[in-house]
Backbone:
């Protein structure tokens, strides 16, 4: 967790640093001794929370809040105002009206400060998750609509061009051009199919399957995809229960994740796929935006290059890719996302540059959910 403290008093900054180091051992702290310096750091460092003094020369705390909340890049960072005892309720209202998320008046105990930071972080995470799923939902509706119509048009292009190609002998000067049209139409069809999978418009054919068996029966194929310099490990929980899944969609999902892992480990490494049976109580389920019940927890981890923090919110977006032109279309993870959602599950990712990547997927086990959601 990254915390930025903005205060013109060095003594205050030192006290704050000591408190955080003592009570929040996983916190990284940066300090700024003016509003201007704080704004620059907030834009470049993307802290999770800002602790802000009100009375500062040059740019005071109010102006700092206003600038932070006006800039889309910093507007979502929670701001906790920490101020001296001699402010009145008007100051509090003013700061809150400008967008401060909490207002603490000295003297503040270290426990009170830490509790406020923890609440802010929880709210920020929940807001981020909500914004992210709303964004993907909106893109899905748009992409699904376009892909559906486009697919119908492509059926006509593919049908007529294939028919003409069959009627054209190879020595005909038009044969090669027709072949190119047929090939391009096939590529466009595969692209629109990926978008339809992302937007859950692909027909699902659910059947009861034991996830561990399904994954291991796909092992040979996955080994071929990842090549010899990557070790594939399977960790199957003996208790892994059945789920209603579309077999080919789950295979597609594993394949896309394995290809990404392979691309992230050009010099070799470890790819580990694990399945576990897990019971989520109401607290742990709500943190994952699921209903309480039994789930199959599937994790796909690699020891590859990892994903920079600022790119993590974008990786499920259709057409987001960091691969060079012609190497990736940026649809692999969008399809994975669509497949997980179509199975009423959830997916999250943990990654850091140099530390590998773990995709964590929860799919309802049969005890809690009987069927895979059918496409509309
Ligand atoms: N296991 C991983 N390790 C590191 N980066 C990853 C991993 N998986 C995904 N990414 C990042 O997420 C981006 C999007 O992945 P996605 O699978 O959607 O598209 P792609 O692999 O670039 O192209 P496509 O899958 O369509 O061929 C990748 O370009 C890469 O930057
Ligand atoms: Mg991919």
Residues:
């Amino acid at each position: 967790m990254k915390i930025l403290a903005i205060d013109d008093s060095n003594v205050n900054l030192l006290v704050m640093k000591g408190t955080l180091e003592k009570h929040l051992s996983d916190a990284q702290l940066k300090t700024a001794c003016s509003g201007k310096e704080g704004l620059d750091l907030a834009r470049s460092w993307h802290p999770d929370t800002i602790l802000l003094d009100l009375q500062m020369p040059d740019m005071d705390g109010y102006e700092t809040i206003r600038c932070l909340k006006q800039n889309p890049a910093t507007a979502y960072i929670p701001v906790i105002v920490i101020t001296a005892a001699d402010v009145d309720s008007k100051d509090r209202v003013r700061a809150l009206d400008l967008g401060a998320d909490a207002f603490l008046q000295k003297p503040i105990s270290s426990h009170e400060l830490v509790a406020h930071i923890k609440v802010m972080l929880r709210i920020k995470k929940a807001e981020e998750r909500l914004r992210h799923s709303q964004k993907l939902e909106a893109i899905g509706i748009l992409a699904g609509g376009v892909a559906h119509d486009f697919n119908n048009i492509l059926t006509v292009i593919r049908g007529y061009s294939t028919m003409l190609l069959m009627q054209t002998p190879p020595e005909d000067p038009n044969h090669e051009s027709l072949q190119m049209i047929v090939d391009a139409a096939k590529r466009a069809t595969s692209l629109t199919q990926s978008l339809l999978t992302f937007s859950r418009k692909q027909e699902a054919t659910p059947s009861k399957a034991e996830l561990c068996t399904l994954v291991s029966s796909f092992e040979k194929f996955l080994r071929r995809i990842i090549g010899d310099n990557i070790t594939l490990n399977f960790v199957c929980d003996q208790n892994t229960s059945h789920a209603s899944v579309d077999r080919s969609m789950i295979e597609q999902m594993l394949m896309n994740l394995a290809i990404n892992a392979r691309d992230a480990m050009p010099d070799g490494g470890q790819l580990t796929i694990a399945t576990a049976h897990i019971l989520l109580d109401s607290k742990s389920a709500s943190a994952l935006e699921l209903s309480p019940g039994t789930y199959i927890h599937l994790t796909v981890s690699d020891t590859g290059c990892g994903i920079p923090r600022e790119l993590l919110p974008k990786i499920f977006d259709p057409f987001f890719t960091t691969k060079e032109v012609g190497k990736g279309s940026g649809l692999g993870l969008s399809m994975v996302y669509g497949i997980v959602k179509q199975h009423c599950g959830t997916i999250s990712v943990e990654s850091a540059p140099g530390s590998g990547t773990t995709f964590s997927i929860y799919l309802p086990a049969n005890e809690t959910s009987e069927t895979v959601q059918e496409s509309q």
